[in-house]
């Protein structure tokens, strides 16, 4: 993590350029406004000239070396960049250092995933899950992708972490509410965001793909589900419909992008588990990313509030 303090000098620091926009100041002079990051930490930055060469070479998603100084701007650290140089063909080691990553490694998460799958009793559902998560294409993407472009679990391994959190919350729901069907709810939790392997691009870009924008991860997830079900002889239609419904309704409302509302106990369990995982992690990310010097984050436009930073008691 890159933690900076006012007046701290920065020299040849590798960063990901997340955003860059050309602006005009009150003095009618042009400048560039950037958002740059190293790991989870993200900073606003300024380049106080409007050289077209900068706009031509530096683009969102690229890696760059920056030299400059950290400044206090209204209680928030802002980087004034004196020099920026795009990193052409960065090594994988450098990419791994700069991009945000999950605190859990993929081996740990893969082990946990299959431990959960092994708790499934229904032979058709267990076969379905094993077939999906041992598929090389899905496996390679699942443990590398984020669960979101910006708001929650927006880092390498975020999709797997979020999926495991949702599954564990659902498992706890089944212990509190024994009438929730364990196999349907847990399988749906593991598959609810599987479409994000195609909705989001790889890091360091981590943007919505054309397919992701046009179709969305919910519909892509149902496509993946049905493509694997079609290869399992005599897979029960009723189970198929139940899992499909949980995937289709997991955002909870039509306004939030679900084509149908949750209409089964398992679907409402998956929706609430998904919401809990996403919102708690989003608050955590907002705190981790914040560059302010006080006990509260800046106003969060997604949740329409500032968020109090965690304290040790």
UniProtKB/TrEMBL annotation:
Keywords noted in UniProt: Hydrolase
SMART domains associated with the record: HDc (SM00471)
InterPro entries linked: HD/PDEase_dom, HD_domain, HDIG_dom, YhaM_exoribonuc/phosphodiest
Domain spans labelled HD/PDEase: 155-288
Key word Signal present: no
Hydrolase among keywords: yes
Protein name: 3'-5' exoribonuclease YhaM( EC:3.1.-)
Organism annotation: Thermobrachium celere DSM 8682
């Amino acid at each position: 993590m890159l933690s900076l303090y006012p007046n701290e000098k920065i020299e040849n620091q590798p960063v990901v350029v997340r955003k860059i926009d050309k602006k005009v100041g009150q003095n009618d002079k042009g400048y560039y406004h950037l958002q740059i990051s190293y790991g989870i930490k993200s900073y606003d930055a300024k380049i106080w000239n409007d050289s077209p060469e900068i706009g031509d070479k530096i683009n969102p998603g690229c890696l760059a070396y920056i030299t400059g100084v950290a400044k206090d701007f209204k209680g928030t650290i802002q980087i004034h960049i004196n020099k920026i140089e795009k990193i052409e063909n960065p090594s994988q080691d450098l990419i791994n250092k700069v991009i945000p990553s999950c605190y859990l490694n993929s081996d740990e998460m893969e082990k946990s995933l299959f431990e959960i799958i092994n708790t499934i009793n229904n032979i058709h559902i267990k076969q379905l899950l094993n077939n999906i998560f041992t598929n090389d294409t899905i496996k390679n993407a699942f443990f590398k992708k984020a669960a979101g472009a910006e708001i929650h679990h927006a880092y390498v391994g975020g999709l797997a972490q979020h999926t495991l959190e949702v599954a564990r919350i659902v498992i706890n729901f089944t212990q509190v509410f024994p009438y929730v069907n364990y196999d349907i709810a847990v399988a749906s939790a593991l598959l609810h965001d599987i479409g994000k392997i195609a909705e989001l691009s790889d890091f360091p870009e981590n943007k919505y793909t054309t397919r992701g924008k046009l179709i969305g991860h919910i519909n892509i997830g149902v496509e993946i589900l049905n493509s694997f079900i079609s290869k399992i002889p005599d897979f029960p239609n009723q189970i198929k419909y139940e899992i499909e419904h949980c995937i289709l309704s997991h955002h909870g409302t039509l306004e939030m992008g679900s084509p149908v509302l949750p209409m089964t106990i398992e679907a409402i369990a998956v929706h609430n588990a998904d919401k809990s995982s996403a919102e708690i992690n989003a608050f955590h990310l907002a705190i981790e990313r914040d560059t302010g010097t006080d006990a509260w984050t800046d106003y969060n436009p997604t949740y329409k509030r500032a968020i109090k930073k965690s304290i040790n008691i």
